[in-house]
Amino acid sequence: WIMVQHGIAFIGWFIFFVVMEHQGERPLAITNVVRRISSFLFMFVNAFASTSSSLVSNLIGAGETQCVQGTIRQHIRIAYAFVIPLLIFFALFPNLILSIYTDIPSLREASVPSLWVLCTGYLIMVPANVYFQSVSGTGNTRTALIMEMSVLVVYVAYITYLILYLRVDVALCWTSEHVYAILTLILCRWYIQKGNWQQKKI
After folding, report:
1. Which of 7, 55, 71, 185 could, after both became Cys, cross-link 128 (CB 3.0–4.6 A)?
2. CB 200 within 8 A of CB 139
3. Which residues lie closer than 8 Å to 98 by C-beta, 6 or more apart?
4. Is 20 within 8 Å of 27 (Cβ atoms)?
5. pLDDT in tens, 121-168
């Protein structure tokens, strides 16, 4: 199930890029640059989320389910401690960061708004990813897969409407990350608080 989850996540990005091609060459170039920066930030978020998932599994296996939610919140705080300083630095010095990924001045300038939108998105993506990985850590990978598919349906509908119908600026297209993260956070947080994972045996 975990491999299927990763495949679905890749499909979401693939669809985003396919739809973005209809915006033209420059928006697609901006998307590629910002995507590389996002991958760098995601390494940090995913590291803490994966650690949280492992610890949740260990706690449930040890019969200490009462510690699960506190552990998740702790990992969110630690992840924020690493990620927020990076986000602030990226937001304050966007041209410096963008110059690492492109040497075209006009492309750097055009990518700044999208980078700012991405930075705000990561404020939601941090807890969303930690909670999502923690759901998998409870042993209910099928539940995590269903949540992922449900969110993906809304995500694809959102980007299709924005890009193909409204044809908004590329920076606004990156608000799709906010939608994805918000829905993921709502579903996964609800499951951790109200789900039947306490009865799972790991």
Report:
1. 185
2. yes
3. 33, 37, 107, 108, 111, 112, 115
4. yes
5. 999 999 999 999 999 888 887 888 888 889 999 999 999 999 889 989
